[in-house]
Amino acid sequence: GRKSVRFGDHQFCEQAKSIIVRNTSRQSKPLRVQVMHSSVVAHQCFALKALSWLGQIIQYSDGLKRILCQVGLQKGPEGENSSLVNRLMLNDSKMWKGARNIYHQLLMNSLLMDLKFKKIFAIQFAKNDYIRDDHDREFSITDLSVQMFTVPSL
């Protein structure tokens, strides 16, 4: 998960970080702790709210769902694996559980609900290795493979 544990100036937060890392390092793997500027955290919270809202809206609008699928799967200027969806999947293991859940729900409510886009998504998914050293398998993008590859049309 993710939680803010300290608010204050940079030095104060760095001290808290070192204490948390030191106290949890007795376990097999210390907690991952980041010191972030409050504006970055605010932007991330806003992005999650916007994705959640978009996920609710596309359930009622087929046109918006198709637009979201087309934009999400469109190749970027870098080439083959540069679509927004590919970049999200490649960075899946770097996200916290809450962010993963929201964008996975968005994928399930959009790309996986339309057979044409589901097929394109499944092909892109199969071409890439999205399995990184991921400590939360049940929140991983690889968990979506069941929804993709258990359909007769694929």
TrEMBL record:
Task: Cite the EC number.
Answer: 2.3.2.27
Pathway per its UniProt entry is:
Protein modification; protein ubiquitination
- Source domain of life is Eukaryota
InterPro entries given for it?
Answer: UBR1-like
Q: Which UniProt keywords apply?
A: Metal-binding, Transferase, Ubl conjugation pathway, Zinc, Zinc-finger
Give yes or no: UniProt keyword Metal-binding.
yes
Q: Which reaction does it catalyse?
A: S-ubiquitinyl-[E2 ubiquitin-conjugating enzyme]-L-cysteine + [acceptor protein]-L-lysine = [E2 ubiquitin-conjugating enzyme]-L-cysteine + N(6)-ubiquitinyl-[acceptor protein]-L-lysine
Q: Could you tell me which PANTHER family the record lists for this protein?
A: E3 UBIQUITIN-PROTEIN LIGASE UBR2 (PTHR21497:SF28), UBIQUITIN LIGASE E3 ALPHA-RELATED (PTHR21497)
Query: Family, per the entry?
Result: Belongs to the E3 ubiquitin-protein ligase UBR1-like family.
* Function field: Ubiquitin ligase protein which is a component of the N-end rule pathway. Recognizes and binds to proteins bearing specific N-terminal residues that are destabilizing according to the N-end rule, leading to their ubiquitination and subsequent degradation.
Q: What is this protein called?
A: E3 ubiquitin-protein ligase
Record the organism. Goodea atripinnis
Q: Which gene encodes it?
A: UBR2_1
